[in-house]
Amino acid sequence: MIIVMTPDHTSEDLQRVVRRLEDMGLRAHISHGEHRTIVGAIGDERILREVPLESMAGVEKVVPILTPYKLVSREFKKEDTIININGHTIGGSELQIIAGPCAVENRETVEEVASSLKRLGINFLRGGAFKPRTSPYSFQGLGKRALEIMARIREETGMLIVTELMDPRDAVMVAKYADIIQIGTRNMQNFRLLTEVGNIEKPVLLKRGMCATVKEWLMSAEYIVSQGNEKVILCERGIRTFETETRNTLDLSVVPLLKRLTHLPVIVDPSHAVGRADLVAPMAKAAVAAGADGLLIEVHPRPEEAWSDGPQSLTPKAFEQLVDDLRTIAEAVGKKL
Ligand code: PEP
Ligand code: MN
What we know:
Elements: E1 2-5, H1 11-23, E2 27-32, E3 37-42, E4 59-63, E5 83-85, E6 88-90, E7 96-100, H2 107-119, E8 124-126, H3 144-157, E9 160-164, H4 171-177, E10 180-183, H5 191-198, E11 204-207, H6 214-226, E12 232-236, H7 254-261, E13 266-268, H8 270-274, H9 277-289, E14 294-298, H10 316-332
Parallel strand pairs: 7-8, 7-14, 8-9, 9-10, 10-11, 11-12, 12-13, 13-14
Antiparallel strand pairs: 1-3, 1-4, 2-3, 5-6
Helix pairs in contact: 2-3, 5-6, 9-10
């Protein structure tokens, strides 16, 4: 349920509404928009049915939100959420590309990729320090050493760092190095982890669980936002279907769908969706045409030598061609690249 305050409400009116909600055992989430102040009632709002909030001073109207997710819903907030990270925005008119290797393997390789990306005007560098691998015998990531490498490259290039957090115990350390904290597909419903990043003041890139419905995905975003961290970026990365020719099936219809259901930015990761380099560029272009706010693409200087996800990684040269092609598509849908 959301409570829309009148344009001329006083701070006492607002306080009274908040106190009333808290007395009922609910939490109040206040959002000061450009034209309106809105209070979200968080908790089991059924108890509010009998409470005449509408007659309280300063209250314009009370609107029930029908979806199970509240704060992330379009009903709650009409304007797009634009996340500003050091002057680079995600969710607005800029098309942001996050690119880099699947994992940080060593300093030289990441430096090599970073300098080619930087030349193309890419602002966000990705690289895994903690890798969620299917096999315990596969490369698990360099951990803290990888974070230090990324931090150094950040200093050298000014690029912003995107890296995955897998374990709440590493949250403080990862948050210290990352500009955007990635939550991977396998952890989309790790609710302890979501609560943890909800309490950190860093943007969170929340990947769709490979078997998650849109509703479940948005409920996971709600976990983060309800803790107070409103900087959530949704990332479609393909879902499991019966098809085996591609690693996953890229569900591009979620882009326009999410734009209706939520105000959060939506980006697309074609690399993990298709799992093969030859299909990455066409799906990246399709994602931008569908209205994505950005892309996440794996790039490796020598994909055949990559320690993880080599088959889906683009070479810097192929990536350069893609960025070139994307400019016209971005322009056609009103985005700047
Ligand atoms: C990744 O980005 O390297 C990754 C592991 O992604 P996902 O969680 O989508 O599999
Ligand atoms: Mn990967």
